[in-house]
Amino acid sequence: MSEQVATESKKGGHPLDFLLRKDRIPHIWCPGCGIGTAFSSCLTAIQDSGIDLVKTVMVSGIGCSGRAAGYVNLDSFHTTHGRAIPFASGLKMANPELNVIVFSGDGDLFAIGGNHFIHAARRNMDITVVCVNNFNYGMTGGQAAATTPHLAKTTTTPMGNPELPFNLPLLAIASGATYVARWTTLHTREFTDSVEKALVSPGFSFIEVLSPCPVNFGRRNRQKPLDTLKTYQEKSIIKNGASPLELDIDLKKGIVLGTFVKADKDTCSERYDKICRPADSAS
Amino acid sequence: MKPAVLTGEHYITGDVACAEGALAAGCRFFGGYPITPATEIAEHMADRLPGVGGTYIQMEDEIAAIASVLGASWAGKKSMTATSGPGFSLMMENIGLGVCTETPCVIVNVQRGGPSTGLPTMGAQADMMQARWGSHGDYEIIALAPSSPQDMFFQTIEAFNLSETYRVPVLIMSDEIVGHMSEKVVIPKAGKIATCSRPRPRGRKDRFRLYEPGPNGVAPMPAAGEGYNVHVTGLTHDERGYPALSVENQAQMMRRLIDKIHNNLDDIIRTESYRLDDADIAFVSYGVSTRTAMAAVDMAREQGIRAGLLRLITVWPFPEQQIRALAERVRGLVTVEINLGQIHLEVQRCAGGKAPAILAGHPGGTIISPEQVLQTVKEAF
To answer: Which of A119, B102, B192, B255 is most buried, by CB atoms within 10 Å?
Structure first.
């Protein structure tokens, strides 16, 4: 147990309180929402990983999950919609000593920000991207996203979603990510462990965490708050190393969770230094 | 290994001079995306930056380019990007983030004809109002207009100095003609180049407030990774940097963003005069069109018209006082620019009816000829 955790515990607070901007609590997340669970798992992982907290930065985009950067007591950046990854890429390339975590939602990272995601993965930018996937745009009241399941009801798909969703781990793997995992907010231990591993593994790490959104997504799709978690419990299949092709989210065949890729490749800044910097250049 | 400052005489394009100016100013991060006629700036930075300890990254689009520049600036590096009209349009939202979060950075717009894809290889000065108001919301910004490769060198240094001093994105509103023109550029010794860096926090880190302004209205800026635990948001925020969505906080934040520019106009605004002292017709121009206007002044004088030129080096914030003073004493004001009336509207506004203000404009694709300007003057006055 670190000194800070011990101090917080002695004071009677939560052991991770020092990682929170307590003066910003209460948070904006609705009752039953999974973002808080995903967020606190991330804080646990950040603490347990042993990385230097002074050198650790959280970047978010816009949306419910995008508010995470406003609650974490680290250097934190709440950027424009969809642009957390390129902002984070600038931070990392300009100072490779920083540990950069992007914490944002599915709409932010994969609709408006989808292009940045695939390119950061292709470059093997040394950042960890955590995507809270709640299958819709929660902040604006529950519209269809690039992850909304086929036929699901949202405020902009009142007859059911005619489109098909992204298979996010497949997209990440195809784009070149070196660590790819998926969990749900029910699988907090596995998810926390995954984030911890991602933080210490060099290269582009991507973790999708499925999360209930009872207020906006659940109530339009006949899911009471606990139903969603029950679905995660009953329908999920943990299958590490599963083929990315079978990772589409389909309740009939089950939701595959696990760690799918752990690869070792030079990171973007390592390759830049090797290839572009002359041996005698100033640092 | 080439040094960051290439002291000596060079025969280079405006784009290359801009890149060299950036390196001399201490720029060590460039987020690029190719676009005619600004590509050469990115190419030159890609070649030069790694050798001076900097980083070039080619992003997937201009939105990513400017976002990476903002991130790099918060990592503590002087950062820039360069683009032209279509890319400038894509950058607008994040330029607003830069304004709101008071992030120093430099954005070069080597202007070409528009709207839309327009005239990629041909010059214009038609993004001047976009430079002022292109991002949503109310704000102040600084924009400079170079008229030669030598200007591109010095104004890029100036842009970094202003950006770092006032913590605001600074726009260099160049154009295809200046960007692609080759001329002699003299680069002074490194020790003779004045450079500024952002104000730095002092005192206890746990008492630090991110947007508590210093004496000139600008707050000190730490970098990520220094232990200040900053929270930086594009939401309306208070002095701690925390989101604070109220009418009062909006007024307080807006006041600070605007006042830090308004209260330092004497330091920010630069103009130059040419044969203006006894002039009764005043040309007002900026960028490449000042070259046209200077030639038109000389031609007019040969024909007995007492013309002179006020050259705007700083276009935004607009040199209102200078235009007002001119309007008090001349017979007419003539704005020379490659568009159909943008800065002209500002000149007209500031003249306030004291002197007639007309436009010698052009729809874009080439410079305006001095003859055409003179003809406009003769017809109007």
So the answer is: B102
- A218 belongs to a structural domain: yes
B-contacting residues in A 68-127 (Cβ below 8 Å): 69-70, 73-80, 82-83, 85-95, 97-98, 115-116, 119
Number of domains in chain A: 1
Q: Tell me whether residue A2 is in a domain.
A: no
Q: Which amino acid is at A205?
A: S
Share of chain A above pLDDT 90, in %: 90
Confirm whether A60 is domain-assigned. Answer: yes
Residue B98 has φ and ψ, to the nearest 5°, of: -65, -40
Q: For the domain bounded by B8-192, which CATH number is listed? A: 3.40.50.970
Contact list in B for residue A119 (CB cut-off 8 A) is 59-60, 64
- Chain B residue with minimum CA distance to A84: B67
Q: Provide the residue ranges of all domains of chain B, joining segments of one domain with +.
A: 8-192, 271-380
Q: Is residue A130 part of a domain?
A: yes
Residue B279, burial from CB neighbour count under 10 angstroms (0-12, 13-18, 19+): buried
Q: Is the pLDDT of residue A34 over 90?
A: yes
For position A139, which CATH number holds?
Answer: 3.40.50.970
pLDDT tens-digit series, residues B100-153: 999 999 999 999 999 999 999 999 999 999 999 999 999 999 999 999 999 999
What is the C-alpha to C-alpha distance for residues A254 and A188, in angstroms, rounded to an integer? 19
Task: Tell me which residue of A271, A237, A272 sits closest to A254, measured CA to CA.
Answer: A237
pTM of the model: 0.97
Report the residue from B53, B73, B224 with minimal CB separation from A283.
B53
Q: Suggest the residue from A28, A58, A75, A101 to mutate for an interface test with chain B (most B CBs closer than 10 A).
A: A75
- pLDDT tens profile B15-49: 999 999 999 999 999 999 999 999 999 999 999 99
Give bridge partners of residue B31 from the DSSP assignment: B57
Q: How far is CA B165 from CA A72, B103, B104, in A?
A: 29, 11, 8
Helix (H) / strand (E) containing B272: strand B271-274
Q: Considering the domain B271-380 in this protein, what is its CATH number?
A: 3.40.50.920
Residues of B in contact with A83 (CB under 8 A): 63-64, 67, 94
Domain interval for residue A263: 28-267
- Candidate from A63-77, A109-123, A268-282, B73-87 with smallest mean pLDDT: A268-282
